[in-house]
């Protein structure tokens, strides 16, 4: 944030100086024009040879001085502004990093297959976000024609239509979709249909007393959700109290913000993708978000590694530091051996000791270097045979 | 360091570079105007020195009126220049303000920023890969005209197209426009273009023209360029080129592709566009941070189709990348997707499969009090499950 403020400060300064420069120049040029015009008028009145010559000599040389003065200022004052321009560039360079250092040395997309894979992932992202036209153009421009058939696009076309309507605050197509898929939605414990009804209801309450009867009638739609959403239904019905005074200054003001509408779009997309057998969240979006979290840390550690001459590139096995990308983006169990601090692999799986403590197979072998028949658990007093340890699967 | 610092340098530096270029052109324009005024003024001065009688009055007044005309023109142009510079400065300001949304206190604004950022990164990727139409559509649909550098790439496309149809003029014009910048980065582009022109002349059997061309353009060469020139000049000596490898290389069609790549490289450099697309670098970091050994295990692995690394589109791409480093175990129940921790104790079935306590309860309720392992389908009693301790 500070870096942005620093750049903005320089830009604002430059904007001021430029405005000022052109204001002054405009005034100056007006003065010169006025002066020349007045000379012309004066000369026009003269009817005497001698006076004409003297007066012309005099005024033209004065005019010459003024004009030369002006053009000198015009050019030089603009030249002076360069210092401010280049300052902007310097502040940008000082506050932002121009490249990714050694991180960009590997060529991630090094085969035509991988290129196709990446373009497919982008197509999926575009479809999920309502950019049907962009997706179709990308398919053409990147020659993905054989890979994506019309059948695959079909469900997205419907999805896009519903999303577009939701953006216009029209929930009806989404409700229709819910009713057509009610069985499947129930299986995934979806609240989508209720949340859509909720939005319709709030829309009615917002209209004030004239929609009172209609709102009451609409509330009957909530009956089907009485078991799962009773609390929220209570809350919604309470909003009827504020119908006359308006929701703005009531405990219900949060219903009016854009949040609910944004949330419903996301919820619908997630539900629709789940029913289509697609990942709940767009894989490309997850990668880029995780990447923008990881990138600063990785660029940083590479710099440190270079400075301390530990190395210049990342290891091929494991990142040098832990990056917290949040619980939401954890998709698999990772077992890290508490003794060796290594992640388990197929050849070094987690082993459960008799006592219930878990260590890696490599750690177990190290405990048993001398080939003893009995070992002691590193975490409790239980003695046991290494052969009793069991491999486990998370 | 935050991600803005790493990712957004070019978002600000590219319009800055454009501002700088524009500023220099404005200076040139101002200087041209000034010298033109100066010239007119000098003529009037001269005219005044030779005045003798009133008959010349009209002539002098006409000259002065010409001067006024010129000044008015300069005044008008100065307003145009003012707007140009102001607009470009304001463009940088707009980009700064857009980037500020990254740290907004409003969650929706922040989410929108991330969405837009992905679109911007994709547009950059499209443009680098010549998917110009896709880029244009996304720019329009996402309203990102001011946040992307479409113009630079569309200009680039025009020149690339001309090179593809074996024309050098447009690219040479571009070299001329950016002469000082190209000199600063030791560009070889103009030389390579002239060399290509020479080769084309030889191809057309216009050997004499080729010699003239070489005398005109192959001057002040660097040692490396001299070697290249000598290689090209050899072409003049052979009647048939087919049997000489160097000649074949020079006459090959791929040299035009080489020129296109060379031009693109220099175009990126002088416009401060990073050589690598942000998309692949960010993907590289992101995939690595998400990658676990489980994503590549074939036998015992739990498939999670929400995981991007397991996703068919990214699995191969992520293969050569390092795994995320994980100092402490983090367990996720393969059946319910819940976290396994002290509130949801890990339990191992006799077959070695581990589930959280909650999952076992759920499995029991679904199967008349018996646990049917979702992976091996063996059936157990709850008493057979053993508590395990993950440190
Ligand atoms: Zn133990
Ligand atoms: Zn995975």
UniProtKB/TrEMBL annotation, chain A:
BP term (GO), one: proteasome-mediated ubiquitin-dependent protein catabolic process
Record has Ligase as a keyword: no
Superkingdom assignment: Eukaryota
SUPFAM superfamilies attached to this UniProt entry: RING/U-box
Record keywords, A-Z: Cytoplasm, Metal-binding, Zinc, Zinc-finger
GO molecular function, one term: ubiquitin protein ligase activity
Zinc finger annotations (RING-Gid-type) as residue ranges: 337-380
Subcellular location: Cytoplasm
The UniProt record lists the keyword Cytoplasm: yes
Main location: cytoplasm
SMART domains tied to this protein: CRA, CTLH, LisH
Ranges for domain RING-Gid-type: 337-380
Any Gene Ontology CC annotation: nucleus
Protein name as catalogued: Uncharacterized protein
Organism placement in taxonomy: Eukaryota, Metazoa, Spiralia, Gnathifera, Rotifera
TrEMBL record, chain B:
Zinc finger (RING-Gid-type): 307-376
Keyword Coiled coil: yes
Recorded superkingdom: Eukaryota
Any one GO cellular component localisation term in the record: GID complex
GO function term, MF aspect, one: ubiquitin protein ligase activity
Compartments reported by the entry: Cytoplasm; Nucleus matrix
Keyword annotations of the record: Coiled coil, Cytoplasm, Erythrocyte maturation, Metal-binding, Zinc, Zinc-finger
Every CTLH domain range: 152-209
SMART domains, sorted: CRA, CTLH, LisH
Domain RING-Gid-type residues, every copy: 307-376
Record's keyword annotation contains Coiled coil: yes
Gene Ontology terms describing biological process: erythrocyte maturation; proteasome-mediated ubiquitin-dependent protein catabolic process
Any Pfam family matching the protein: CTLH
InterPro entries, A to Z: CRA_dom, CTLH/CRA, CTLH_C, Fyv10_fam, LisH, ZF_RING_GID
Residue ranges that the Swiss-Prot or TrEMBL entry lists as coiled coil: 37-102
Family annotation (PANTHER family): E3 UBIQUITIN-PROTEIN TRANSFERASE MAEA (PTHR12170:SF2), MACROPHAGE ERYTHROBLAST ATTACHER-RELATED (PTHR12170)
Name the record gives this protein: E3 ubiquitin-protein transferase MAEA
Organism name: Brachionus calyciflorus
């Amino acid at each position: 944030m500070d870096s942005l403020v620093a750049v903005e400060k320089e830009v604002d300064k430059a904007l001021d100086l430029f405005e000022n420069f052109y204001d002054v120049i405009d005034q100056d040029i007006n003065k010169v024009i006025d002066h020349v015009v007045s000379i012309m008028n004066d000369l026009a009145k003269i009817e005497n040879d001698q006076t004409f010559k003297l007066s012309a000599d005099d005024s033209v040389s004065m005019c010459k001085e003024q004009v030369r003065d002006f053009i000198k200022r015009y050019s030089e004052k603009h030249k002076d502004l360069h210092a401010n321009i280049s300052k902007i560039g310097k502040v940008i360079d000082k506050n932002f990093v121009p490249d990714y250092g050694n991180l960009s040395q590997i060529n991630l997309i090094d085969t035509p297959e991988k290129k196709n894979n990446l373009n497919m992932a982008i197509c999926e992202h575009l479809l999920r976000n309502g950019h049907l036209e962009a997706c179709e153009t990308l398919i053409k421009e990147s020659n993905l024609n054989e890979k994506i058939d019309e059948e695959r696009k079909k469900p997205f076309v419907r999805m896009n239509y519903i999303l577009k309507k939701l953006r216009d605050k029209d929930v009806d197509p989404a409700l229709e979709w819910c009713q057509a898929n009610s069985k499947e939605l129930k299986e995934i414990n979806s609240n989508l249909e209720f949340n859509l009804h909720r939005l319709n209801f709030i829309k009615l309450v917002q209209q004030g007393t004239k929609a009172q009867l209609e709102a009451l009638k609409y509330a009957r739609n909530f009956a089907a959700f009485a078991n799962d959403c009773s609390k929220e239904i209570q809350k919604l019905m309470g909003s009827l109290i504020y119908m006359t005074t308006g929701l703005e200054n009531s405990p219900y003001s949060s219903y009016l913000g854009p949040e609910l509408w944004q949330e419903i779009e996301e919820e619908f997309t997630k539900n629709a993708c789940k029913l289509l057998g697609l990942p709940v969240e767009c894989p490309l979006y997850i990668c880029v978000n995780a990447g923008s979290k990881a990138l600063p840390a990785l660029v940083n550690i590479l710099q440190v590694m270079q400075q301390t001459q530990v190395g210049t590139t990342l290891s091929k096995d494991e990142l040098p530091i832990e990056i917290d990308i949040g619980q939401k983006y954890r998709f698999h169990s990772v077992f890290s051996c508490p003794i060796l601090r290594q992640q388990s692999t197929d050849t070094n799986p987690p082993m459960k000791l008799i006592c219930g403590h878990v260590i890696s197979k490599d750690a177990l072998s190290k405990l048993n270097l001398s080939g003893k028949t009995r070992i002691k658990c590193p975490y409790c007093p239980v003695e046991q045979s290494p052969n009793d340890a069991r491999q486990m699967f998370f | 360091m935050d991600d803005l610092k790493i990712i957004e340098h070019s978002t600000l530096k590219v319009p800055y570079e454009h501002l700088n270029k524009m500023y220099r052109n404005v200076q040139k324009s101002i200087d041209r105007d000034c010298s033109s005024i100066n010239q007119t003024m000098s003529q009037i001065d001269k005219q005044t020195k030779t005045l003798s009688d009133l008959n010349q009055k009209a002539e002098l007044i006409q000259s002065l009126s010409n001067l006024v005309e010129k000044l008015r023109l300069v005044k008008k142009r100065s307003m145009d220049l003012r707007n140009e510079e102001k607009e470009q400065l304001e463009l940088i300001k707009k980009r700064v303000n857009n980037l500020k949304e990254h740290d907004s206190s409003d969650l929706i604004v922040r989410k929108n920023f991330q969405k837009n950022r992905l679109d911007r990164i994709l547009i950059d990727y499209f443009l680098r890969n010549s998917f110009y139409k896709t880029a244009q559509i996304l720019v329009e649909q996402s309203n990102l005209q001011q946040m992307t550098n479409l113009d630079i790439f569309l200009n680039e496309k025009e020149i690339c197209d001309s090179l593809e149809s074996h024309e050098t003029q447009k690219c040479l014009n571009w070299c001329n426009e950016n002469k000082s910048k190209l000199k600063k980065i030791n560009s070889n582009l103009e030389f390579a273009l002239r060399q290509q022109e020479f080769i084309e002349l030889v191809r057309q059997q216009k050997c004499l023209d080729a010699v003239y061309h070489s005398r005109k353009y192959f001057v002040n060469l660097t040692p490396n360029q001299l070697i290249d020139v000598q290689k090209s000049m050899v072409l003049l000596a052979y009647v048939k080129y087919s049997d000489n490898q160097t000649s074949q290389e020079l006459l090959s069609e791929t040299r035009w592709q080489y020129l296109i790549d060379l031009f693109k490289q220099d175009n990126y450099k002088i416009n401060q566009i990073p050589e690598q697309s942000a998309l692949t670098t960010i993907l590289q970091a992101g995939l690595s941070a998400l990658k676990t050994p489980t994503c590549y295990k074939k036998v015992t692995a739990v498939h999670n189709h929400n995981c991007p690394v397991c996703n068919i589109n990214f699995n191969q791409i992520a293969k050569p990348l390092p795994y995320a480093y994980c100092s402490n175990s983090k367990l996720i129940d393969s059946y319910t997707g819940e976290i396994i921790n002290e509130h949801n104790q890990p339990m191992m079935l006799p077959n070695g499969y581990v589930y959280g306590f909650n999952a076992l309860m759920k499995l029991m309720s679904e199967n008349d009090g018996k646990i049917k392992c979702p992976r091996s389908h063996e059936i157990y009693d709850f008493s057979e499950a053993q508590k395990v301790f993950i440190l």
